[in-house]
Design a protein that fits this description.
Layout lengths: L10 H20 L5 H14 L10 H14 L4 H9 L1 H26 L3 H8 L4 H11 L3 H25 L18 H20 L5 H15 L9 H17 L3 H4 L4 H29 L3 H8 L4 H11 L3 H28 L5
Helix pairs in contact: 1-2, 2-11, 3-9, 3-10, 3-11, 3-15, 5-6, 5-13, 5-16, 6-7, 6-8, 7-8, 7-16, 8-13, 9-10, 13-14, 14-16, 15-16
Length: 353
Amino acid sequence: MHRPDHPAPPPDAYLRTLLLALLAGGLLTALKLPLGWMLGAMLATAWLGWRDAAAVPEVVRPAGLVVLGLGLGQTFTAPVAAAVAASLPAILAGGMLSLVAGLAVAPLYRRIAGTDARTAYYAAIPGGIVTMAVLAQRAGAAVPAVTMAQTIRMAVVVLTFPPLVAVFAAGGRDAGFSAALPPFAWGGATLLLVGGTLVALAGARAGLANAAMLAPCLLAMGLSGQGLLPSSIPRWMVDAAQVAMGASLGLRLTPQALGAGPRRLALAGLVSALAVALLLAALGLALGRFAGLPPVAVVLGLAPGGMPEMAVTAKALELAVPLVLGFHLVRTVLCNLLVGPLWRAAVALRVAR
């Protein structure tokens, strides 16, 4: 994965990145750090990237997302799917709270960054990096500032939430969201991987957002719900997906990826990321207690990180994975549908000026 206006990196750059990502991921995992494989790969790749010495094949992230999607979808047995459906009111409320939290933090970002209100709004809303960049471009906001803020927020959440949530992880486990999975079988797992790849390609062709993860996830959900899952996705495959995702995320933290810009933009991104994370953590605890759901899992469901990163965190910590995934799926849909109308409503009500 490299910029099109740069020459292709030498083969040894790919090998160097892979070896250092595995070494760092293995070290953090051995130290019992939650999400060690992903965090180690991310930090190692970012370190190399700052020296213009990192290289990750473009296929790595989508391949990791296919595995992760299958691993998450397999947890949606019929009883678990029913439990998630019963929690839909709380999940919808969580999605709306996420958008409102971004709107509330936007003035703080604007004050520090010195941008216009529109750019501050799109920079502060906790959506996906690509999604918010596209929406910002459509709305006429400053895309580089929005991309930098969203990337910094992603890195802050990925670095801080797993270790903090791990301290209280026992409070996020709930038998109602746990599934008994079939044993691992090489033949069945191979069929799942091939099927997941095919539906991911079909989903991307059809324009499905985040098709590499969502399409395989939907496939595994359907098979699991009908009791037709031919194999489980083992932990070591999910760990490999963590390395793939971490290395790809690390490339987004380099000066080349973030782009040159005033330091105050980076400071605004950091401060607003911490602010929205704290606000949503408090709201998640309150919503979990009010709705009778495991509060720690709801906090992770409202965490302003990316859906793949937060879902794999839930998987690694053995939290209520389907519930966490449900929160992030709904927020993704609401971001695409409501970010623009919410901005226009805020302007009309003079909330954003």
